[in-house]
TrEMBL record, chain A:
Residues 4-115 form the HPt domain. Coiled coil: none annotated. Residues 112-187 are annotated as: Disordered. It catalyses: ATP + protein L-histidine = ADP + protein N-phospho-L-histidine. One of its GO terms (molecular function) is phosphorelay sensor kinase activity. Residues 493-628 form the CheW-like domain. This is histidine kinase. Residues 647-763 form the Response regulatory domain. The lineage of its organism: Bacteria, Pseudomonadati, Thermodesulfobacteriota, Desulfuromonadia, Geobacterales. One of its GO terms (biological process) is chemotaxis. The modification Phosphohistidine is found at H54. The modification 4-aspartylphosphate is found at D696. Residues 144-157 have a biased composition (Low complexity).
Automatic annotation (TrEMBL), chain B:
Residues 151-346 form the CheB-type methylesterase domain. Phosphorylated by CheA. Phosphorylation of the N-terminal regulatory domain activates the methylesterase activity. This is Protein-glutamate methylesterase/protein-glutamine glutaminase. The modification 4-aspartylphosphate is found at D54. GO terms for molecular function: methyltransferase activity; phosphorelay response regulator activity; protein-glutamate methylesterase activity; protein-glutamine glutaminase activity. It catalyses: [protein]-L-glutamate 5-O-methyl ester + H2O = L-glutamyl-[protein] + methanol + H(+); L-glutaminyl-[protein] + H2O = L-glutamyl-[protein] + NH4(+). The active site is at S168, H195, D288. Contains a C-terminal catalytic domain, and an N-terminal region which modulates catalytic activity. It is found in: Cytoplasm. GO terms for cellular component: cytoplasm. InterPro entries: CheB-like (IPR008248), CheB_C (IPR035909), CheY-like_superfamily (IPR011006), Sig_transdc_resp-reg_Me-estase (IPR000673), Sig_transdc_resp-reg_receiver (IPR001789).
Length: 764, 352
């Protein structure tokens, strides 16, 4: 059993949804009524209006919103009167009824926010709505009274605000979801809050990372198996030798050979098991894919809403607005059943609103002018939505109004210096028309409070482009205007952290961001030749993002503290220093395009709210780059970024050691070539030099000492650093190495990756 | 455990009702419906013990739904609705004609001081109504009320000056039928107590007036009772008729748990009019008025109880018959016939 507070809260949430649905339906019912249907249909509509108002009243009463209930009651009384009497409703009465609905809507918003249960349904602020239509009754008194003297005030309009609005209450007026469950046909529907859906989508998107790590695991297993397989030849040779040793040798040697054979067999066994593991990892990956991909697909479908949810409210808007401007206009649409991602619809709402308002304001002429031009007094505004292809939809907004005067567009463009005069002169009309999307350009002679400031259409174009779509306009003078909007059906949206580096904006996918913070310069510690910061008690490498991106270092004043973002890619974590962190944004990532198949550190681009094109960074690349250049201290002036990565030649006859070295060095960001022995290395070096040579000592044909000597003897290669890596640690070898001119001498048993990389860094 | 079906088109109200009902250990909501069609379907499949029905529903409204349910799989149906404009009473009582047992008001808003009491009241009545055995109703297409062939013999020739009618569950359609058949020149006053949820009596009067040839009004304290007028006891008051022929409204404690009560009315009528009184006890739950009907009989008045077959609930009339309070046990058509006869006879007697 619920306590009454919890129950009331739940009821209020239910009520809000219900009320929005009723209000939306009421508006369209009234519009249908106004189309002057035949008597039985009118009765039916009126009955529906009455029933909705009555139901809303009951619901408002149940959640103790007496103000709303009272307004409903008044409206209900009026409607009951209309229902009982068989009267003709005039324009003025309809104005009053619509005004009552508007009034009801405001009371509702006030009531709900007062009751503290307004989970603001639309995050975007609604553009200012027209002031509620002033009750028409007194204005057209003469006419109405003359027409129906017996019922002078049959429609007594929106009740005067019972109490002045306590404060400027924001008006959350979305009616966004009022269609989710309002369609009785088809499957049973369930009302779910959009927030919950959003969360579900996010959570299921996180499953992708599980898929990714499974894929990484599989790759590693495959690589490991591959390495073992490559050793097969080596193993075979070793076995053969061991067998030979067993035959000939005796005692210790024989035992050693037997041991060797055993270990070779064990390795083969291991390889087999690894192969099995790899196979099962592959299977695992596939089954994960099989589950996650369809799940995500279905989750995306959950985000779909019929376009009608966006179009429905326009009918009332057009009507109210036209009446306010002394015009008559009717809105119809087709294709409302087409389902589109909710978030796209939300983005479309505002541009469409601008376009529709613009059309009513500028497109549709006054009834007198329309009649003079031989058109029906009531203007028609029409939206047609259809699929363009599998990924895009097209929305056409058409009116039968006065059209756009191209000459005036050009005139305005010239005035605003949007384009040079001679260009405008030559510009085709169709092309010139598109200039109306330029910011600040308006052909309207007066700036009304509805539109005419010349900003609206620029917003429309920006919004569409932000969505990855576009908008175009066509017009016939005197015949009307047609806007064509093309936009994608689904959304490749991610959340991104906007940061500034050397005065440039870039976006880091928020998925990879662990934390962003500031640190005092004094707290940046240099550990093992790297800058580090302490984040939550853990030491993390700190790398300058500007250096990674190879941006010029500006002579910036030394600041006391610096901003950084801690990123993670897989298990690795690195802090990247940035100029400043600007915040998190939802962005639409666009691919780089065919011209640029791959750009290091950049995965794509996005258009920000301010129309700026900004790169989206590829975190995996950032890590690769960071590991390659991590050494130089951050605050100390460093030589300008390296033009290219350091190249290393590895000479090693054992395939295992060769692969190991190659992997270590590549992981550290070096460009690695390999040679199978000293002779191979020398010929490679003569063909193409490198920055550092790493060589084994014992190799066929030409060993490490011989190679080093040959390098030192070659005038072009003499200065090349050579690192000798050997399994033998003997002083004589070391001395011999120094003698022939090796730059460093590492013993395999003692070397670790860090050691090797450090040596190379010192030498290169 | 009483299994309820809640029919209500407002999701909010529906949720509030379900919460209120589920809070009672003896009630359980087995289903909800938002339209008349859904309600009929759910009544068939869920077989609830009781249905709470809203009147305004999309598509098939409360009236059509009630009619459909009562003619196929009869279930006690109670109308639960908000306050209505008296002018719109027609829809409300039409549903009662279709077989709904009574009208009850929706509870007060959650969180308001009156909430618990209003819920308790609603639940109390629902439990009572759930016990009623309802029968399948066949709705005649024509409006031919069969009259009894054989005229009744009348035991007394005194002119009846006041007809007191008491009714409870199932009463409104009967009262409407009776009043509609009385002539505008009806020579006696009619005083009525109909048990009704608070707030709907005014609607009831309004609805009666639509078909009654006699003017129907709420009884007001001190009003002179005159022939050819119908007085209905208002909410919250007992209604009595004094020997001076005036209406007296009192706030004496409820009798049989109700106020207005039939007992109080019948007692006063017996007291004030004696042999010129007539008492009619119609369908209803409980015993209200039964003993006092006997008082009327004892003081020489004419007494009638509705018969078992036509009574929706044979409680009050059954009790009256049991204690031998009723001279006549009749179906509605015969009651109307009798009213005609005793008054015309009475009128004759008065003039002769």
């Amino acid at each position: 059993m619920l306590d009454s507070e919890a129950l009331l809260k739940e009821l209020l949430a239910t009520f809000e949804m219900e009320a929005r649905e009723h209000l939306g339906e009421l508006a369209s019912l009234l519009l249908a009524l106004e189309r002057d249907p035949e008597l039985t249909e009118r009765r039916r509509l009126l009955e529906s209006v009455f029933r909705r108002v009555h139901t809303l009243k009951g619901a408002a009463h149940a959640v103790n919103l007496p103000d709303v209930a009272l307004a409903c009651q008044r409206l209900e009384d009026v409607l009951a009167g209309l229902k009982r009497g068989d009267l003709a409703l005039g324009l003025a009465e309809f104005d009053a009824l619509h005004a009552s609905i508007n009034d009801l809507e405001q009371r509702l918003s006030r009531g709900l926010s007062a009751a503290g249960a307004v989970p603001s349904p639309s995050p975007r602020p609604e553009p200012p709505r027209p002031a509620p239509v002033v009750p028409a009754a007194p204005r057209e008194d003469g006419e109405v009274a003359a027409a129906r003297p017996s019922r002078p005030s049959a429609v007594p309009v929106a009740a005067p605000p019972a109490a002045p609005p306590p404060q400027q209450v924001p008006e959350p007026k979305p009616a966004q979801q009022h269609h989710v469950a309002a369609r009785p046909q088809g499957d049973e529907t369930v009302r779910v809050s959009a927030r919950l859906l959003e969360e579900l989508l996010l959570q299921s998107e996180e499953l992708v990372s599980a898929k990714q790590s499974a894929s990484v695991l599989h790759e590693e297993l495959a690589a490991l198996t591959g390495e073992l397989a490559l050793r097969q030849g080596e193993r075979a040779r070793a076995l053969e030798r061991a067998r030979r040793g067993m035959k000939g040798g005796a005692g210790g040697e024989g035992a050693l050979a037997a041991l060797l054979e055993q270990s070779c067999q064990a390795e083969r066994h291991t390889e087999g098991r690894l192969r099995l593991l790899e196979k099962s990892a592959d299977k695992h990956l596939r089954s994960l894919q099989g589950m996650i991909d369809p799940l995500l697909e279905e989750m995306k479908k959950l985000q779909l809403l019929p376009c009608a949810t966006v179009c429905d409210p326009f009918a009332k808007l057009v009507r109210d607005l036209a009446r306010e401007l002394g015009k008559e206009a009717e809105f119809t649409y087709q294709g409302g059943e087409l389902e589109i991602d909710r978030r796209i619809l939300a983005e479309l709402k505002e541009p469409l609103l601008h376009l529709v308002r613009n059309t009513v304001d500028h497109g549709i002429e006054s009834p007198a002018r329309r009649e003079a031009a031989g058109k029906p007094a009531r203007g028609a505004i029409r939206i047609d939505i259809r699929l363009q292809d599998a990924n895009r939809a097209e929305l056409v907004l058409e009116d039968d109004g006065g059209g756009i005067d191209v000459a005036r567009v050009k005139e305005a463009a010239l005035r605003l210096e949007v384009a040079p005069a001679e260009l405008l002169e030559r510009m085709a009309d169709q092309e010139a028309l598109q200039l109306i999307f330029e910011s600040g350009l308006s052909t309207s002679r007066s700036v009304g409070n509805v539109s005419g400031r010349g900003i609206g259409l620029a917003i429309v174009r920006d919004s569409l482009e932000r969505l990855g779509g576009h908008v175009a306009v066509a017009s016939t003078p005197g015949g009307g205007t047609l806007f064509r909007l093309v936009f994608p059906l689904s959304f490749a949206r991610i959340r991104g952290l906007l940061v500034q580096v050397r005065g440039r904006d870039c976006v880091i996918p928020a998925n990879n961001v662990e934390v962003s913070s500031r640190v005092a310069v004094a707290d940046v510690k240099r550990v093992e030749n790297r800058d580090t910061v302490l984040v939550n008690g853990e030491v993390v490498a700190l790398v300058s993002l500007a250096r990674i991106l190879e941006l010029e270092r500006s002579a910036a004043a030394q600041e006391q503290s610096l901003s950084f973002v801690l990123l993670h890619a897989g298990e690795k974590r690195i802090a990247f220093a940035v100029d400043q962190v600007l915040g998190v944004q939802e962005i639409l990532v666009k691919p780089l395009g065919r011209q640029l198949s791959r750009v290091r550190n950049v995965s794509g681009g996005t258009v920000l709210g301010n129309s700026k094109v900004v790169p989206v960074l590829n975190v995996a690349d950032l890590f690769r780059s960071a590991l390659a250049v991590e050494a130089p201290a951050l605050p100390s002036p460093s030589p300008a970024g390296r033009p290219r990565p350091v190249s290393v030649l590895v000479a090693e006859d054992s395939i295992t050691s060769r692969t190991l070295l190659k992997n270590i060095l590549e992981a550290a960001g070096y460009q690695v070539r390999t040679a199978v022995d000293g002779a191979d290395a020398l010929s490679q070096l003569r063909a193409e030099p490198c920055d550092v040579v790493i060589s084994d000592i014992e190799m066929p044909r030409m060993d490490g000492f011989q190679l080093t000597a040959a390098i030192r003897a070659d005038s072009r290669l003499a200065a090349l650093p050579v690192v000798l890596v050997t399994g033998l640690e003997s002083r004589s070898d070391r001395e011999r190495g120094i003698d022939v001119g090796a730059s460093a001498y590492l013993v395999k048993s003692s070397f670790d990756q860090g050691n090797l990389v450090e040596v190379i860094q010192k030498l290169s | 455990m009483i299994r309820l079906l809640v029919v209500e088109d407002s999701k909010t109200v529906q949720r509030a009702l379900v919460a209120a009902f589920e809070a009672d250990p003896e009630l359980t909501v087995v289903g909800t419906a938002e339209s008349g069609e859904e309600a009929v379907e759910a009544a068939k499949t869920l077989r609830p013990d009781l249905i709470t029905m809203d009147i305004n529903l999309p598509g098939m409204d409360g009236f059509d739904a009630t009619r459909a349910i009562m003619s196929t799989c009869p279930v006690p149906i109670v109308i639960v609705t908000g306050r209505m404009n008296p002018k719109d009473s027609a829809t409300l009582f039409r549903v009662m004609e279709a077989g709904a047992l009574m009208v009850l008001a929706k509870p007060d808003p959650v969180g308001t001081p009156g909430y618990q009491a209003s819920v308790d009241n609603l639940v109390h009545h629902l439990k009572l109504m759930a016990e009623i055995k309802v029968v399948r109703r066949i709705f005649p297409t024509g409006k031919a009320a069969p009259r009894p062939a054989r005229p009744l013999t009348l035991p007394s020739a005194q002119p009846v000056k006041v007809v007191a009618i008491g009714a409870s569950t199932g009463g409104p359609p009967l009262l409407r039928q009776i009043l509609a058949e009385l002539p505008a020149t009806f020579p006696a006053a009619v005083v009525v107590v109909q048990h009704m949820a608070v707030g709907f009596t005014e609607n009831f009067v309004h609805w009666l007036n639509r078909t009654s040839k006699l003017p129907v009004q709420l009884g007001t304290d001190g009003a002179q009772v005159s022939a050819g007028q119908v007085y209905v006891a208002p909410d919250h008051f007992h209604m009595e008729v004094t020997s001076a022929g005036r209406i007296m409204l009192t706030e004496a404690p409820p009798e049989h748990g109700v106020r207005p009560s039939v007992s109080v009315l019948f007692r006063s009528v017996a007291q004030s009019y004696g042999r010129h009184a007539m008492g009619v006890l119609l369908t209803g739950m409980g015993k209200d008025g039964a003993l006092e009907l006997k008082t009327i009989r004892g003081r020489g008045g004419i007494t009638v109880a509705q018969d078992r077959e036509s009574s929706m609930v044979f409680g009050m009339p059954g009790e009256a018959i049991e204690i031998d309070a009723a001279q006549h046990v009749l179906p509605p058509a015969a009651i109307i016939e009798l009213l005609h006869r005793v008054t015309s006879k009475g009128a004759n007697a008065a003039t002769s």
